[in-house]
Design a protein that fits this description.
Layout: H1 2-17, H2 25-55, H3 59-95, H4 99-125, H5 127-132, H6 138-153, H7 156-170, H8 175-197, H9 207-232, H10 247-279, H11 283-319, H12 323-350, H13 352-357, H14 363-376, H15 380-395, H16 399-425, H17 433-455
Helix pairs in contact: 2-3, 2-8, 2-9, 2-11, 3-4, 3-6, 3-7, 3-10, 3-11, 4-6, 4-7, 6-9, 7-9, 8-9, 10-11, 10-16, 11-12, 11-14, 11-15, 12-15, 15-16, 15-17, 16-17
Length: about 450
């Protein structure tokens, strides 16, 4: 009887995950990516709605959340980077039919979540010092401190949610991710105005309410992610008893994940340093950058969803030694990614005033924001190419290439150019650093793609 059950489980694994090696690439890429793109779009809505409601408190509140944002990004970098490392390694194991190793990879991902959470709980303990080091405005410090404390002390929820989502992604069950993220985002959108402004008998908590609404939404998403993995993801067989540290497996996860962590952490460092350049001019400049950063997530997040849908397909077919399918998904991914980002640029050029109006922008902030949106959105198509090539690098175990590109773009180019332009030409010249950096990023991506093709793909 046990033997029959075991055979049935193996057959189920074949039916579910092997479609990444058999279905037509065009349809498979859409099927794998569309739920992720939609869920990432919902996630972007999640982030933007938070800032829109906070902006209606006052401009200082939006500035405070913007100053706290780099540390939230750092938190996300560790959570998402670890989950991506686990997911790519898991997909490779499934492609090679190494099911026992796949289970070990999945369970060690949760060990790493616990380690990462400990780090960011400590960050939350120093929230007041972190915000006050950036500004002397007591109102901004008060707002920023409470927001950063809550989001860091309860960061176990988004970290666990990321891991659970990537388990579903690695086994081809991306449709459930939309439910996981969508439910959390919807709950956050509902609770934001209730907790911020005190509707339906709730106390008006202001910025604290925005932070709590975010965490409550993440908690709901985490619970649903656990439910879908336990009831629908038979490839993994999650069990608390199996969550035991296995250092070689964790090392393998981080061999893929650390470059992604570094790459996304560099983004938080860049964000922090740009805030410091802008705060020297005015809080309005920081708030403008914060508004742009939230708005651009509507374009970048779905493209990252396309990236995430591409990674397991490339990894699986690399493990299965299917060069024809690997080449096809590489080509399609770039076309879709660049096309989507071009649409984003068009929207930012046509509707900049309407987009800034979402944040209750003053006339000064609107004028600065229109200029910023026009200039910075020029980088979108270049970024689309880099993001989709990054999916290939990650899936083939060359995440370090994406890390190098990110380091050069965001630290070697964006920050120095932004600082230099701010001194020579004023605050509105800062925005040009972004398209300049993306052009350099594309050049590096092309060169790394040639290297990957020569050293890995051509040898399959």
């Amino acid at each position: 009887m046990n033997e029959e059950v075991k055979k049935e489980e193996i057959n189920t694994k074949k039916r579910d995950s092997d479609r990444m090696g058999t279905e037509p690439i065009h349809g498979l890429l859409i099927k794998m990516s569309l739920p992720l793109m939609l869920s990432m779009f919902v996630q972007a809505l999640y982030n933007v709605v938070d800032s829109i409601f906070v902006a209606h408190i006052n401009e200082e509140a939006l500035t405070a959340v913007t100053l706290a944002n780099p540390f939230q990004l750092l938190n996300m970098a560790f959570g998402i980077g670890t989950a991506i490392g686990m997911s790519a390694l898991l997909s490779r194991c499934l492609g090679a039919k190494a099911y026992a190793k796949a289970e070990k990879v999945a369970h060690n991902g949760f060990v790493l979540v616990a380690i990462n959470y400990t780090i960011f709980f400590i960050v939350g303990c120093f929230a007041g010092k972190i915000i006050s080091a950036q500004t002397g405005d007591p109102t901004i410090v008060a707002y920023g401190t409470v927001y950063l404390q809550i989001t860091q002390w309860l960061s176990i929820m988004p970290m666990t949610q990321s891991m659970l989502e990537r388990l579903l992604q690695a086994t081809g069950k991306t449709k459930y991710i939309l439910f996981v993220q969508g439910s959390g985002a919807l709950f956050n959108c509902i609770m934001d105005p209730i907790l911020i402004f005190g509707y339906f008998g709730f106390p008006a908590l202001g910025v604290k309410g925005a932070a709590l609404a975010t965490v409550f939404g993440q908690t709901l998403g985490c619970c649903l992610g656990l439910y879908f993995n336990k009831t629908r993801n038979k490839e993994i067989g999650l069990s608390w008893r199996k969550i035991k540290p296995h250092w070689p497996t964790m090392k393998d996860i981080y061999r893929i994940g650390i470059p992604t962590i570094v790459m996304q952490s560099v983004g938080s460092v860049m964000n922090f340093l740009i805030n410091q350049i802008l705060i020297a001019f005015s809080a309005t400049a920081v708030a403008t950058f914060g508004a742009y950063f939230k708005l651009q997530s509507f374009v970048f997040m779905p493209t990252f969803g396309l990236n995430s849908g591409t990674v397991p397909i490339v990894a699986y077919n690399y493990g299965a030694r299917r060069r024809d399918r690997l080449e096809e998904v590489m080509s399609l991914g770039v076309r879709y990614g660049v096309g989507f980002m071009l649409m984003g640029t068009a929207i930012f050029w046509i509707f900049p005033k309407q987009l800034m109006a979402l944040f209750a922008a003053s006339p000064e902030m609107t004028a600065m924001g229109v200029n910023a949106l026009h200039i910075m959105s020029l980088n979108f198509p270049f970024a689309g190419y880099c993001i989709m090539r990054g999916a290939v690098f990650q899936a083939l175990g060359k995440s370090v290439y994406s890390m190098n590109i990110s380091l050069v773009r965001q630290l070697v180019v964006i920050v120095p150019v932004a600082f230099l332009f701010s001194r020579l030409f004023g605050v509105n010249a800062v925005w040009w650093a972004f398209p300049i950096a993306e052009i350099i990023g594309v050049t590096m991506s092309v060169l790394y793609t040639k290297r990957v093709r020569k050293r890995i793909i051509d040898k399959i």
